Protein: dTTP/UTP pyrophosphatase
Organism: Aminithiophilus ramosus
Amino acid sequence: MDSSLIVPLPSPPLVLASASPRRRELLSELGWSFSVEPSRVDETIPEGEPAASAVERLARLKASAVADRRAESCVVAADTVVAVGGLLLGKPRDRAEGRAMIGLLAGRTHDVFSGVALAWRGKVFSASERTEVTFRPLSESEVRGYVDTGEGDDKAGSYAIQGRGALLVTSIRGCYFNVVGLPLARLSLLLAEAGLSLERQWRFGSR
Ligand SMILES: Cc1cn([C@H]2C[C@H](O)[C@@H](COP(=O)(O)OP(=O)(O)OP(=O)(O)O)O2)c(=O)[nH]c1=O
């Protein structure tokens, strides 16, 4: 067939339902244009809820909350927690909790779980992704020094792999972007599942 006869379908407007600057940066780096509308949902995880289900449930909740007011758009949301020794670590309440978290992570391997959800045309598609991250051993003063940089204050597990936290990480297994808060390849698969092929994803937001 003459390829000039194929008219590409336009991409739907894309909305990122997140207040996270990291998630915004990751989508921008793909060259996508999108608007940002943070959701304000209760992010409490009940004791005993498995990490993978919790992050997926919260991502769905965030996407649905924004989709309710943006029916014509494709809404993306995510949630990230760190799991270590049977504990789930969200964002630290203060620096003391931050030090306790980094102390727990030092010299061992933990899991980072992100849930990602996509709400489009009345349906919600979702998944969760796990990445193993290993920290090198740290002395008490190294733990204190890192937490005092402040970069982990608003991050799950109290660290940023994309920042100075990289100096603590000896290896990772799995998706790097999942650790930063948005598993991009997983998101791409969800978009395809929703009917937005990779061909359409290349052009997200372009007119
Ligand atoms: C482990 C890790 C987490 N994080 C961040 C990603 C998330 O922003 C944050 C986890 O908190 P979340 O509650 O998942 O997200 P958020 O409150 O920042 O934003 P929103 O709910 O509006 O989408 O931790 C990093 O940036 N780097 C890391 O290495």
About this structure: Residues 51-67 form the longest helix (17 residues). The chain has seven helices and seven strands. The chain has a mean pLDDT of 94.
